[in-house]
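Same chain as my last thread, 170 residues:
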Amino acid sequence: MKRNAAALAPISLFLLSACAPAVSSAKPEAPTSAVTAPGTGRSEAEGIAAERLHLARAVLASIAGREKEPAGQVFKNVKRLGAVPAIQLIAIMNTAYAKSLGVSCSHCHVVGEWASDAKPQKQIARDMAAMAATINSQLLAAIPNLRGPDPVVNCTTCHRGSIKPALDLP
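reply #2:
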């Protein structure tokens, strides 16, 4: 089912706000494996999530009034997802890509120069998205006894919040 841009705006804003780090004054009962950023009181993952949210909100502010227009018309150098509303592209980048890899926007982008292809990670992300599309549309569809409605793979399938995909079992 296709949704219109007006219906996507609240969903996209929810996705952006869902990445905000939880603030709690309680200390964990047991030590965690998360690295605490010096002087911040928050884990590295929380800092990355906060940076992602800050940058996503800044980009949204810069396109105010154009959020529902196709991303390819609002942003330069959009190779994939140019037809989705601009606000949805930001949510996809923030959640589907960055959160799935446990990174901030600066992993693939030169901050402030979003159209730049200076970082090879940006093309790798495009290539990986094409790979996932091929797996979903051709390879999974060709497995006759695969159960479940619309099985898919995405960034999280392999990365699970880490830059390097999971290659073995714990």
